[in-house]
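Postdoc handover notes: sequence design on the structure in folder B. Input tokens:
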């Protein structure tokens, strides 16, 4: 992906019964991804919350922790214009309080 990094690169499928689904209330989300690495084997106590069309983990969380989420896309690049990215940061901030 080339600048600007705020453009949607592809869509991810959000799994129901995950905090990410509860946050967005949708099963599909456009994301600004440009990664060149992926998770091969999911670590212990990690759960996939979203995946790409080809089955790569795009968002995971650590089960049992208050807020440990990881993304293959970059909400930090577009939070100033993307309300969905802002929601991720707002959720993190609220979890820290």
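Designed sequence:
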């Amino acid at each position: 992906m080339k600048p600007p990094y705020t453009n949607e690169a592809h869509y991810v499928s959000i799994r129901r019964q995950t905090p990410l689904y509860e946050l967005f209330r949708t099963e599909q989300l456009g994301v600004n991804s440009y990664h060149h690495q992926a998770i091969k084997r999911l670590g212990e106590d990690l759960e996939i919350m979203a995946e790409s069309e080809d089955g790569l983990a795009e968002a995971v969380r650590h089960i049992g922790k208050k807020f440990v989420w990881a993304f293959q896309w970059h909400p930090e690049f577009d939070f100033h214009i993307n309300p969905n990215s802002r929601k991720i940061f707002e959720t993190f901030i609220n979890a820290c309080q």
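Context for whoever picks this up: The helical segments are 19-24, 75-78, 83-96. Don't rerun without checking with the PI first.
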